[in-house]
Write a structure and sequence with these properties.
182 residues, Rossmann fold, Glycosyl transferase family 28, Glyco_trans_28_C, six-stranded parallel sheet, alpha/beta, 6 strands, hexosyltransferase activity, transferase
């Protein structure tokens, strides 16, 4: 049996994303048959998975070409890069309430992309739900293969939508901002 490979990226935001790193590290401990690499940023380093705080872009894209599954936070760059390398990413967006980001724009963006089938959304605070979804994807990695050339138009539209949402935020506060994100 071929060893499955998973790349996890928390991106370059300065907020730690310890929740995702803990979940992935626990997954790696339970599944030694899966090779898990975590780009963990300012989060605590994983103990069971291999990893690095940050990677050069060339190293990150090399890994994207070599793995079966990519797990990323909800930023547009990680999602776009994953799809550009032929993989529909598993997206676990950061939660502002948990101190993982300044607001919930990642959740809104990832929800939008999940609804149109561009990502596999796992917007949860439940580790077992995350683990179940990742395990299911690993059972059928063909389900996350995409044709990168077919994505150009969809990616441009998604990024444009995200930019519109972000541009509208400074004009709104509180409940109004949440309404804009929906």
């Amino acid at each position: 049996m071929t060893t499955r490979r998973v790349l996890v990226s928390v991106g370059s935001d300065h907020h730690p994303y310890d929740r995702l790193v803990r979940w992935v590290d626990a997954f790696a401990a339970q599944r030694p048959d899966v090779d898990v690499f975590v780009q963990y940023g300012t989060s605590a380093a994983p103990r069971h998975a291999s990893g690095a705080a940050y990677l050069q872009h060339s190293e990150l894209t090399r890994l994207m070409d070599e793995v079966d599954v990519i797990v990323t936070q909800g930023g547009p760059t990680g999602i776009t890069e994953s799809r550009r390398h032929g993989i529909k990413p598993v997206v676990a967006p950061r939660h502002a309430r948990l101190g993982e980001h300044v607001d919930d724009h990642q959740r809104a963006f990832a929800r939008f992309l999940g609804e149109i089938g561009e990502v596999i959304l796992v917007d949860t605070e439940d580790a077992s739900e995350f683990t179940a979804r990742l395990s299911a994807v690993l059972e059928d990695v063909s389900s996350v293969r995409v044709d990168p050339s077919a994505d150009d138009v969809a990616i441009a539209a998604s990024v444009s939508h995200f930019a519109e949402l972000v541009a509208a935020l400074p004009r709104h506060r509180g409940a109004e901002a949440e309404q804009v994100l929906r």
